[in-house]
Fold DNA alkylation repair enzyme.
Amino acid sequence: MPVLRSKASKKIVASASSLLQCLEGLAKPSYAQQAVKFVHRSYCPNDIFVGIRVPQCREAVKTHLGSTTLKDILDLIHDARHEMRLTGFIALTEAFHRPHSASWWSDDGVPTEDHIKHLGITFCAKCIDELPAWYQRLLQSKDLWETRISIVLLLRLLPTEHCNVAYAICLHHINKFDADPSLRCTLEGASFPSLDLIHKALGWVLREAGKRNKAALTRFLDEHAAKAFKTTVRYATEHMDRAKAKRYVDRAQKGVASHAATNLDDEA
């Protein structure tokens, strides 16, 4: 994660876009001190919080997207400040949904291949039949966030005829960690001890799939619960009868204790 240096800061301010200027005007140090308490620093040790609420970030994008260039968005995405990066990704999503609002948007897709993974949630249902190269890279990545993205994207498949693909990819991840219990994802290139966010994401997808077809989830857990981690199975069975859910959780692996707190994420 980049560290904001003084020279870079001066350069950014000197050529600041209207969106960046708006964000900097919204910064509230007192709120930043409160917000940082809800973020586990092990996941983002170098993030700088400036105290901008998410609704404010969204409103700033709606107001200034039309006068913002692709370079402005890329600068935000590489900014060391947490809320600036968040706004950059909100802007990409907004441009996809309202391409007429961003002159730099390409009708053929996202501006560059590097951004596809961030908007893959929209493309996934269209491309899953041939598993596009960008998604294959996510599946093969060892990076914690890219691995998690490859799972969370599956939520958009569940209402489609490709729900079985979501189950198959969840099983891919479950098998991967079952085959090598010492396997870990990386964060900023270094091995990260906790897989909690990965196991939670798998549980979310399975739980949501089960809402649409309880029998399919039951069949999946009958066959694979013993290979999954308890966190995954606990989330997957949240809407099951308690006694039935407990039987599946009891079959699952305990896994390695995680030092990362479990309330980092909002439920899907």
